[in-house]
Design goal:
It contains eight helices and 15 strands. A hairpin with a 3-residue loop joins β5 and β6. It is an alpha+beta fold. About 25% of the residues lie in helices and about 20% in strands. The strands form four sheets. A six-stranded antiparallel β-barrel has the order 3-4-6-7-10-9. The chain starts with 5 loop residues before the first helix and ends in an 8-residue tail after the last helix.
Length: about 400
């Protein structure tokens, strides 16, 4: 066969079948097997099988020896390089001319032959070096992206190639943040932030719980926007990534039998540029500016969920939020920051309903005075409820939340 079709032919030649000239019965003693011929001569890719190295010759055939000097391990490795090269070409990371030149080079290394296609007259044959370093691939590593669909409650998985800067650009008490590029994306969509816990023994499920929580908050934000508030809100799309090429970490388990090591993972989200601001936290704090939109969104999340959960710890750039915390009425799930009913009560102990709360038809709790400035809807959905004294509860917010009869039914 020729080098041009070597890639397609070699896969079939690694594991020959009887119809390629093999004889299922052993040859007489002292007889050598006849070479296998193709239209262009003997194949240099005969398989290597022997009883000595533990490989079993298929169908009892006489073992073949390789005449080109490559071991089976070498050929498998080079085939993987050819497949990876094709994937990079399909991703648009090289043009067709470069792809063909590098593919022919790999095939020639695999077959220990040279390209026999005659060059055009007066056109010198290009000299291809043994290695072609591509600066675009410097620092790349393989990764598996785990994305959560909050509406379906399911995870989906895709492979990608990323570049992660070795030095963090930000650092908190528990995590470090690194700049990252996802090469499956283009333009600003490729700019991401990779977050890893400082403690390598951190429970892996923590990464997945945080992604589930943020994507659930994003789905609640979509319902909030359907009410046509003056300003729309959103949460940054995030996911978990397994870093395939990095050294695995030990899997600490109890008992005598240790489990195999685990791949390193991280949480990843799209990079948002701008001034970062925290509007409230998970224990009653709120920003001194007390913007109407983020506070109304937290209030909305509680009543829209039929009083089962509330989204707090609202922070981000403008009204593009990230890293929320959810308190649930039963105190279950949503990580270590879920303070249950106590966390819900803490939010309402400092919350002052604003015109957006009224626009959304939410129960008025400690309304802001009419003179207080802030974003207001142009047309109030429930004008009779705005700052009406009958909605200005004088009781303790804790009593309001623990007595379900004081809440309107949805």
């Amino acid at each position: 066969f020729t080098n041009a079709n070597a890639l397609e032919s070699h896969h079939n030649l690694i594991s020959p079948t009887p119809n390629r000239g093999q004889v299922n019965s052993p040859l007489p003693p002292g007889t050598s097997p006849a070479p296998i011929h193709t239209p262009s001569g003997p194949s240099p890719l005969l398989p290597r099988h022997s009883q000595a190295n533990g490989n079993i010759t298929p169908d009892g055939a006489t073992p073949y020896t390789n005449g080109n000097g490559n071991t089976e391990k070498d050929e498998v490795k080079m085939l993987e390089e050819v497949r990876a090269l094709k994937q990079l070409f399909e991703m648009g990371m090289m043009d067709k001319g470069e792809y063909e030149a590098r593919r022919i080079q790999l095939v020639n290394q695999l077959t220990r032959t040279s390209h026999n296609t005659p060059a055009p007259t007066n056109t010198p044959t290009p000299s291809i070096p043994s290695q072609l370093p591509d600066p675009r691939l410097t620092g790349t590593e393989r990764a598996i992206r785990h994305r959560y669909d909050a509406k379906k409650g399911k995870w989906c998985h895709t492979a990608t190639i990323v570049i992660i800067e070795p030095t963090p650009f930000a650092e908190g008490a528990m995590r470090k943040a690194f700049r990252m590029r996802d090469l499956s994306q283009e333009g600003p969509a490729s700019q991401m932030v990779c977050k890893q816990f400082k403690d390598p023994s951190e429970d892996r499920t923590t990464y997945f719980r945080e992604v589930e929580m943020q994507m659930q908050a994003k789905e609640i934000a979509e319902r909030f926007n359907q009410k046509n508030p003056p300003k729309k809100v959103d949460f940054v799309t995030c996911f978990v990534m397994e870093l395939v090429d990095r050294p695995p970490i030990p899997n600490s388990t109890s008992g005598a039998n240790s489990s195999p090591p685990l791949r390193q993972i991280c949480s990843v989200e799209y990079f948002i540029d701008g001034k970062y601001e925290k509007h409230n936290n998970n224990f009653g704090y709120k920003n001194e500016h007390d913007r109407n939109t983020p506070q109304a969104f937290s209030h909305f999340s509680y009543e829209n969920s039929k009083f089962q959960l509330i989204v707090v710890d609202i922070q981000g750039v403008g009204d593009m939020y990230t890293d929320p915390q959810i308190h649930s009425a039963d105190g279950l799930g949503y990580g270590k920051g879920n303070l249950g009913v106590e966390g819900i009560n803490k939010f309402f102990s400092t919350h002052n309903c604003n015109p957006i709360c009224s626009h959304l038809g939410l129960t008025a709790i400690n309304p802001k005075p009419p003179s207080d400035c802030g974003t207001r809807p142009q047309l109030m959905a429930h004008p009779n409820n705005v700052y009406d004294s009958k909605f200005n509860f004088q009781t303790d917010p804790f009593d309001i939340l623990t007595n379900s009869q004081q809440w309107p039914k949805s």
